[in-house]
Amino acid sequence: MASPAQRRLRIAAIRFLNPAPLMWDFDHAPHAERLAERYQIDWMLPSECADRLATGAADIGLVPIAALAVTPGLRILPGCTIASKDRVRSLLLVRRTRQPLSAIRTVAADTASRTTIAYSRILFQKWGNAGAEFVPMAADLDAMLEKADAAIVIGDPALLALEEEANQLERSGEELVYHDLAHEWRALTGLPFVSAVWCAAPGVPLDDRVAEDFIRSRDHGLANIEALAEEWAGKLPLDESTIRHYLSVNIHYVLDEECVAGMEGFFEAAAEAGVLPRYELAGMAGAR
Ligand SMILES: C=C(O[C@@H]1C=C(C(=O)O)C=C[C@H]1O)C(=O)O
What we know:
Elements: E1 9-14, H1 24-27, H2 32-38, E2 39-44, H3 46-55, E3 60-64, E4 75-84, E5 91-96, E6 106-110, H4 115-126, E7 133-137, H5 141-147, E8 150-154, H6 155-163, H7 165-172, E9 176-180, H8 181-189, E10 193-200, H9 208-222, H10 225-233, H11 240-250, E11 252-254, H12 257-272
Parallel strand pairs: 1-2, 1-3, 6-7, 6-8
Antiparallel strand pairs: 3-10, 4-10, 4-11, 5-8, 5-9
This protein binds the ligand C=C(O[C@@H]1C=C(C(=O)O)C=C[C@H]1O)C(=O)O.
GO molecular function, one term: hydro-lyase activity
Pfam family, one: VitK2_biosynth
EC number: 4.2.1.151
């Protein structure tokens, strides 16, 4: 087999809307052709990105940060993130209005997620409900709420569930509360909600060019939000203004000092709550 230095780097990418700005150069002229010589992109759910890096089936991946605490040897590429500094819209806890957070016994937990599930376990403890049981399920709000008291959904299915909020009441007759988990986290901790970062698997040789390719792609993506809104309005039943707001306000793509502090706060809280093994970010500096 060719060594990683000889073959293309295998990239585990997330197939939701939110990473679209990070992926711009890999998907669009004039850089896509050159990058395709160095990188092979595979599209999948966030939890699968974590699994691929853990098993060595990918070289670099957009990895839910919770995976850092359970996968030895992952290295964070500087500069890029999927984070949110307040409302995110696509990380939802949905519960029945009549059942308060402290009374929820079972939570259907989106199998696409690693990070949001860990944040939610911490939040449930902070809400005085350490006993809530998390049951893994595919993202399908109606099916989840049939099986469990509440549901956590992330990514595109969450954005669509929020759009459907009004119809949902009509369809099921059940009044639901939609908690924006990034907003809840910010309200309780004052920290941004960091979901994912680019990571390299153990043993994968990294030169500066790799980090530069990803940072440049992010910058080009952020300069092309209008084009992305138009492009994605054809792929998802969302209007351009919703997508534009999501990509330019709800999601934050720069792994800056505040996000590094957010990650440190998350790992500290997760270890204290017994949700993840203790993990220290090794002297990471935030990007500007
Ligand atoms: C903001 C989001 O962040 C995602 C949430 C993740 C998780 O919960 O593990 C992982 C990667 C991100 O794509 C989202 O998809 O809605």
